[in-house]
Amino acid sequence: MNRQDPRKKVRHSPFRTAKNVWFMIRYVLRYAPGYLLVTLLEALGKGGWHVAGVLFTRYLFDAIEAGEDFRRVVTFLLFYAGYNAVFLLFSRWRLSVYLPKVELVLHEGIQNELYEKARKLDQSCYDDPEFYNDFIWAIRESDKRTVQIMENISLFLNRLLSGAVIWSLLASMDLYAALFLLCAVLAGFFVRNRLNRVRYEKKLELNPIARKKSYVGRVFYLSQYAKELRQGKISSLLREKYAGAVEEEISCIKKYVKKIFFLSLLASLLSGVVPSAGMTGYLIFRYILDPTLSLGQFSASIQASHKLFRTLNDLGSCLNKFNEHSLYIENVRRFTGYEPKIQGEIREVPPFESLEIRDLSFTYPFTEGGEPVLSHLNLSIHRGEKIAFVGYNGAGKTTLVTLLLRLYDAESGEILYNGVNIKNYSPEEYRRHIGAVFQDYKIFAATVAENVLGGEYSEEKEPVVKEALEAASFTERLKLLPDGIQTQLTREFQKNGAALSGGEAQKIAIARVFARPFELIVMDEPSSALDPISEYELNQSILKNAAGKTVIFISHRLSTTRMADRIYMFAQGKLVEEGTHGELMEKNGKYAEMFRVQAEKYRAGEEASPKGTPDAESSAVSPAAFPATSPFEQQAASWEGAPEGLRGEYPR
To answer: For residues 286 and 313, what is the distance between their CA atoms, to the nearest angstrom?
Structure first.
């Protein structure tokens, strides 16, 4: 996303402000069109109420001075009181009954629309460190801003109507007084406009500081950080960071405090003290000196001048508010108007047959230095194959998966799906063919079934959910859950929600790829949270349930990857070796070296632990933990090039 200087974003022309306000009004027309009609009725009713007050005051005093018939005065009084009662009743209904309902309707409609927009954002948007500063905070206010804009429109229209009528009445009685009030309020408007810009600039600078404070707050109240906070001195460090953020906040406030104070004072003088005190003194002086000014005209002029200065002042405030709203809406419009760069024309994506990667290179956006994470990769994968990506941390394995899923597009090279560049396919349709278990998988505050399906659950889907859980080796744990697949996961909303262990949660994530007919399955460290015995059982289940499907394993545990038809070894973003386990062991290269290191760790754990007992440190397991006929042992016994002491063992 293109970055902009905050100072440039605050200068909106009246046309641009009107365009932004209309953008938000369209949400009202889309989700609550009746709100616009109610707003107009409120504006007209309130405007008429202000005008009627001035006219009634003038009539009352002139009628008393002229000795008019009392019954006629009472009739006008009852009419005026009846109008006030009806308008008051309507106003109370609107504020207490209608508006709360409309706010909920708008909130649901707008937020759902924005959530869907956020879902379609390019993954690279989340790599932009300023993304949340400029967009998310505005999105959070979008529905509130829509209501505020409508209320502002109501106030603006009624003040415009009543202001025009009252100013005409005052001008007919005293043109100079009317012009004086108009000039004072206009001056106040321009000062307030400048004040709003300064406040907006201040908020822009405070927003990233607020994010720092908010982060520290989240760490101290979220349960996933509780254990680490009680170890070491990270809590002291975080408190220091919080104190530093507070110092930044104080510094920012000091930077703007003088400017805001003087602009606020000047705006109050121009819009309040000068028109009010000045007009009252002027009219009293004129009433004393001008015998032609009747008591009714004098009283109406006093009331009209006070109402007019408040009305014009409110009009200026409304215009300033529109400008303020426009500043926020600008960010919302950039968010909703953002077009994903990852797109494609072809929507009919055929069943998976092959993936071919040609001379692929990639560098993450928004990274300093621009060092490539992947460099000139070439490999191919075919239907039904079991492929393993191995290598040390930072080798680029997971990055390659994100490119295969089109979460990013590489700047050079290409990925061909059935011989067609994946950039030509619609991303959503293309991803329907690929199931992925991410290394940083997430469990949602929903039922087991909803987590497995990744969406709504219905009774006819029960067999699918249970089969997927069985494929992920979760059946035994499922029997212990109080409500089976309807058990609520996490304790976000229910105190008795199921809290799963890391390995159990990982199995739920794995079950997702078996709940849908994916043709290509990607397992990024699928057994990282499992003990070796559970890992063995899971691998067997995956092999059984993924028969005929293409599976890509990413793992540091070579016991997982050795069952692959082909292994790709990555190092520093490059593909350095490929072949079967036996072929790579025979080459005696980086893969063989990595395998032997893990085998040594196993051997050390075996010597330190009772025979047949898994060692907590090595996370290895002895041969006695598995049947003598296990496919792992059978395959291990046939390894060529493996050290003699490793035959028949189960290394990580």
So the answer is: 24
Phi, psi of 454 (to 5 degrees): 70, 30
pLDDT in tens, 558-589: 767 777 899 999 998 899 999 999 899 999 99
* Distance, CA of 166 to CA of 172 (rounded, Å): 10
Residue 578: exposure state from Cβ atoms within 10 A (0-12, 13-18, ≥19): middle
CB 482 within 8 A of CB 417: no
Cα–Cα distance for residue pair 325/317, rounded to 1 Å: 12
Report the alpha-carbon distance of residue 560 to residue 542 in Å, rounded. 11
The pairing of strands 412-417 and 354-362 is: antiparallel
Q: Which domains does the chain have, with CATH numbers?
A: 15-208+251-336 (1.20.1560.10), 440-517 (no CATH)
Residue with tokens 């209608």: 98
Residue 604 carries which side chain, given as an amino acid letter?
Answer: A
Is the CB of residue 62 less than 8 Å from the CB of residue 55?
no
pTM for this prediction:
0.66
φ and ψ at 393, to 5 degrees? -55, 140
HSE-up (13 A, CA, CB side) for residue 617 = 10
Please work out, in degrees rounded to the nearest 5, the angle formed at the alpha carbon of residue 85 by the alpha carbons of 84 and 87.
65
Q: Give the pair of three-digit tokens for residue 174.
A: 């005293």
Q: What type of residue sits at position 572?
A: Q
Distance between start and end Cα atoms, the chain: 43
Q: Kindly compute the dihedral angle of the four CA atoms of residues 474, 475, 476, 478, in this order, to the nearest 10 degrees.
A: 80
